[in-house]
Amino acid sequence: VVSTQSTGEGDAAPELYFMLNDTSEEDKVLRYRIYHETLERVLKQQQEERECNNLNIDCLFCPDKLTGNRFAVSEHLYNEHSFTLGHPDNLVYTAQFIESLRSKMARAECLYCDKTFRDYKTLREHMRKKLHKKLNPANTEFDKYYIINYREFGKSWKTLSNDKDDNEVPDSRNGSPTEEAWSDWEGSAPEIKCLVCSVVYTKFTAIKQHMRSQHCIDLDSLCKDMSYYKQVKLINYIRYLVSESQCPFCDATSLPDVSEHLLTHRHITTLSHERYNDDRYLFPALDNDFMLCCLKDVEGEEVVVIPEDIR
After folding, report:
1. Is residue 13 exposed (0-12), middle (13-18) or buried (19+ Cβ within 10 Å)?
2. Hey, which bits of the chain come out as E strands?
3. Predicted confidence (pLDDT) per residue in 228-251, tens digit
């Protein structure tokens, strides 16, 4: 507590200011509550965008109207203008994001180096010559539009990237991997990576058959009657633990070969919901994980974010 009249001198009545800092337990509780409220709001927004198919946005670089879903918008920006925001599933508040970029360009500001030019034509020429037709990952102005920045309390994508294991795929906002991740998108089917090993297939049925035969993981049985978000938690939980050399089904740790362990013990179909019922597993363990796009909701069940699931 800070008083404006701590010495008792002067005629003005003292005013008290209550200040919080990260050493105060009250401050921690308040910040954590705000984090969960924000997380709930962001996940709800992302789900709405995932289901939205009636976007109508002016292109940043040409007169075209971009309609449909956010995948169609991203595909146009990449295929027609070699510009990427990152994988659509990693974005949130997409329309607002594009409008913020439009405002920045309307002020003749470069999206990458933030320099201001005398007019829009000069800006376009600068971005073309300097290869600045991209976003600067160090610009925190864009952080609110990437779901990874809501993944853990008090951590941004940059902090999380530094914490990543060497075996994990680099984040799509961190430099050149963005270009590599998008370079083979046009004209080829997305690849689906196995939950245990490095094998990839372009068909979901093929990767599920591979996991059944090679790792004794029956994904259809594990996901039976599950809502979309429970399936997401399950997939990310398995990926997280395998990356840490742990068995997702038992308490075995420091495994030299998780695949061999699974074949030996054949856990196969059952996995306690309590093991993966944690809000951190709502966030992708693997960047651009196309397996999450292949999951189906329980028939007739509306996919919503239930507060109990994220607290």
Report:
1. exposed
2. 2-3, 16-17, 55-58, 65-68, 192-193, 200-201
3. 888 999 999 999 999 888 988 888
**Residue 229 · residue 309 · CB < 8 Å:** yes
Please tell me the number of Cα atoms within 13 Å of 89 on its side-chain side.
Answer: 15
Burial class (CB in 10 A: 0-12, 13-18, 19+), 166: exposed
- CA distances (Å), 189 to each of 73, 157, 290, in order? 18, 28, 10
Nearest to 147 by CA among 87, 74, 193: 87
165-186: pLDDT as tens digits: 444 444 444 444 444 444 444 4
Q: Is the pLDDT of residue 2 over 70?
A: no
For residue 258, what are the contacts with CB-CB under 8 A and spacing of at least 6? 196, 242, 245, 246, 247
Residues counted in the chain? 311
Strand partners, 146: 91
- Given a contact cutoff of 8 angstroms between Cβ atoms, the answer to whether 261 and 247 are in contact is yes
Q: Which residue has the tokens 């007169």?
A: 63
- Alpha helix ranges (H) inside 60-200: 70-81, 94-106, 120-129, 157-163, 177-183
The residues near 42 (Cβ < 8 Å, ≥ 6 apart) are 92, 147, 150
